[in-house]
Amino acid sequence: MFTLLRNWFRNASQAAPATTVAPVVTTQSAARTPPVANNQLMDIQSATAALDERDRRSAEGLARLSSNGRADWPPVYADPFPGMASELPEIPAKDLTVDILGGAVAHHGALVIRGLLTPAQVAATREMQDRVRALSLSGKPDDSGWYVPFKAVGSPRLPGLRKRIQGNGGNWLVDSPLGLQQTLEMLETAGVLSVIAAHFGERPVVSLQKCTLRTIAPRANPTGWHQDGSFLGEKVRSMNLWVALNECGGSTPAPGMEIIPARLEEIYHIPPDLGATEQALELVQPLVDQYSLAVPEFAPGDAIMFDEKLMHRTAFGPHLSEIRYALECWFFAPSHSTESYAPLLA
Known about the structure:
The chain has 346 residues and is α+β, with helices and mostly antiparallel strands.
């Protein structure tokens, strides 16, 4: 039904004069299209615009894959936190610049950003997350634009991967045209997109498979250590943004992240018997002994940024009792993205 209303709205809007308050429905179109109230018409208009924007971002993301990217890679940054060791640097959101982000990641592995999202932005994102989650689990058609699964050409495995992500408490953000639009506008306002673009030397893309709304239940059993570079590819240029949507990590009852607070230049091989992404504890323990272990505490709206080389895992333990809500968006330089991922211009 949404496709019918979307097409009808486009045709009616194109045919109507600029001064027309509402599209004029012909007898023939009225016969096949149910009456639409003004507020419903506005919802269709918003959903249509978001779907069109998602299509445009997909087309532009694909078109930029053939670009060469910056020649001076990796960029060289001074250490903005000299003398710091065995801990993660952190800044207030107002201090975020490409030199601080690039320098923190290059010398310390990651950067914690306090208050990246405002309380109002956190609330809007949590509301969107719950709405997308409920719609995805209902299995019912959605005509609101909040959940319209993205169909990437030549990706027959997507339905199975999507189902697995949902089973693990996640939803791909790109599957929500309105959610994607809301999030990218929010991150542009926060200055994140311009900083990442300056780091890459080109406008970044997000991907269907690595931009996720996460709902993580507490676990008592160990979770897997990993570097995302172990499966993103050797030549990838990436930057991840992870934002807490509720209080988590540290001494809180919701799981945060355990992190090796150091720059690791090597992408460590993953033993095939441990699964697709988990690293052997025997390899990670010497790193913990050398660099210590960071378990940062996050308030709602706090964020952490890092690239494909950071060693980390979801925190676990019997002391955890509450769900963690988070937004995770991996950004890629389109000239050096992961081939199997569907890119959309950020």
